[in-house]
Amino acid sequence: MPNCTDLRLWIEEAEKMGEVRRVEGADWVHEMGALTELASQMDPMPSLLFDKIKGYPEGYRVITNTLASVRKVALTFGMPTDLSNLDFVKKWREMAGSFKPIPPVVVKDGPVLENVLEGKDINVLKFPTPKWHEHDGGRYIGTGDMVITRDPDEGWVNTGTYRVMIHDEQSVGVHIALAHHGAMHIRKALERNESVKVAISVGHHPSFLTVASMEFPYGYCEMDFVGALQGEPIEVIKGPFSGLPIPAQSEIVLEGEIIPGSKKFEGPFGEWTGYYASPPQADPIIHLRSILHRNDPIILGAPPVRPPAEHSVYRAFTRSARIWDALEGAGVPGVKGVWCHPAGGSRMFNIVSIEQKFTGHARQAGLIASQCQAGLYANRYTIVVDDDIDPTDTFQVIWALCTRSNPETSIQLITRSMRTSDDPIGPADGSGGFSSRAVIEACKPFERLKDFPRISGPSPELRAEMYKKFKHVFES
Ligand SMILES: Cc1cc2nc3c(=O)[nH]c(=O)nc-3n(C[C@H](O)[C@H](O)[C@H](O)COP(=O)(O)O)c2cc1C
Ligand SMILES: [Mn+2]
Questions:
Q1: Mutate-to-test residue for ligand 1 from 146, 180, 278, highest number of ligand atoms within 8 A of CB
Q2: Domain residue limits at 100
Q3: Which atom of ligand 1 is the closest one to the Cα of 176?
Q4: Entry pTM
């Protein structure tokens, strides 16, 4: 079983695989962000481990791009490293589908308690937090983070990845979309004029980032999924201020409270779409009441840079699997593959391949994929293709779009759909409203399945024979 809790063990393994590059002497002002973005444009994307950061002690580190390649995602969860993208989605579905959540166990001590800062000693600027993009409104310490909150009525604990900006030594701001669970917890308490306790882990094993940024149902504790992944409960300590469960091996944890009525402008921030999409907004201030950190702590950085990006690599797998689950859960038969294309941040451009079984089947699959929980947020296009098309192969998908869709009849517009404030095409003031989206049937029309033109090119038998008989032609 993999260890899914200690970032340091993960780094050791990833270094052995040649997946990590060390960077010394970079400036937290723009350089670390720029290097991370440039590394994201390499194939495969390396992880960058920053040390000796300008103005900070040696050992105070930041790691980025931890989930930026199939091999690193496989390492994180103890999965095979040699699978195709579609097989990886299938494998993840199989694994995740068989899991029974394992709740954490509470322990008295752990590395995260090596340093406990309280009162006047609280200073979040002690860590080498990058200013990631040149036009960001501040330094974002929370990017690959998990924001831990408790439902004030029901008692369950949520962990979500939400961006966290430093205001000053003792306060930070958090920006959470209204529909996200952390926002619901906070809203419930503030509406009753009660303050809310929050714990934010900003450095941890990448498995926590994966689960904290996955759309689990309301009421599900994401940490239980990490327990399931490693086959045994994760260890948590009880936060000295918040009382919230905090992974004992976290690198850095900020504990604080949100007081009713206390807000401050947060943003702008270069976002996952590749734009500084929303203007600064008044968001809750988290007043820090304690900081816990390991000796020589490591921030887990996951800046949402323009795709190609880490966030769109690993989330292509997890989100494709979740949409596939939703389609089958809704009773859609014959689904052969789902792929959330990384260019759309693994949200905006999603492809479903089906074996068509009845009239309207393609439209059913497309509409459900574009509206189910995992596919709803920020989707723009959902393309439905036949099962002879590999949805992870962009060239094949575009070929199907060109040859099997008829714009007049194949495009279904959905108006008044959910809109997100980070949608670059929305109102300039980042205000609410609706979005439109399209489902495109790029499959053979159902009524023409029998007489649709035959595909040209060598048959599978002839193809196999040619590769065998004239092997030297294909050798590089
Ligand atoms: C790197 C990264 C940054 C994210 N930043 C935010 C954010 O600032 N605000 C937000 O609401 N969601 C953000 N998300 C998306 C949420 O983490 C995701 O939708 C998750 O499912 C939310 O958890 P919840 O369902 O428990 O609310 C981010 C995701 C990633 C991968
Ligand atoms: Mn949740």
A1: 180
A2: 7-301
A3: 11
A4: 0.95
